[in-house]
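To fix ideas, we now present one chain and its tokenised fold:
***
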Amino acid sequence: MSKFNTILVGALATVLFAFVSRNQIESRQRPEDPKKDVKNIVLVHGAFADGSSWSKVIPLLEAKGFKVTAVQNPLTSLNDDVAAAKRIIALQDGPVLLVGHSWGGVVISEAGNDPKVAGLVYIAAFAPDNGESLNDVAKAATPAPGNEQVRADAAGFLYLTPKGIFEDFAQDLPLPERKVILATQGQWAAFTTGEKVSKAAWHEKPSWFIVGGKDRMINPALQRILAKKINAQSLELNSSHVPMLSQPAKVAAFIANAASNVDSKGFASK
């Protein structure tokens, strides 16, 4: 190799080394992209129910690659239910999309303040504001007819009559499925309806809302009011109070879309 070629090769090597070194330094200094896929979905059931109310949605979300966990609410107080949700949130390995149905909307409004929660999804749910209870929220619209089928036992726990389950809670499900809901319904401490949320997470976390257009437990008009109030991206389904059981594919798709459009810092993607 000639002296000229040796000098040329050396010069090129020096330039290449400088270029690589500069890129390495810049890559270390460049801030990481804050957006991460939210892969953890935590589902919070409502009153008169248990975690099996998500039985049709869970496999659909898992098929999309999400890690899904359903909370089992004790339904004994707001604090107890929030604590149950937060225990499940703590077990997740990254940011969480928190989903609540019915009374579960009250629970996620409080539990959603957990720093791991990136977004909230309300499904035919209550969404109280700071210092509000379920009773406070319900005053904004005429009570739905299913409320007439709520009964209290001697210990002060609420339950729904068979008529309430069959005609008001899950009227768009096949009869065998309605019978399972009746047999598995959770009794709900009556005083919880007056317990107030201290800080509503939807003020700071992006939110989504599914309205049950044929809901006979929570007036659909109230659901529309709440969805607008919390500035939620919303979808209305022609469903009963349990769209996750009567229209699971649409509910799962809505939840998956929410998870894909919120980053780990709790900002909705544009």
Q: What stands out?
A: The first strand starts at residue 40 and ends at 44.
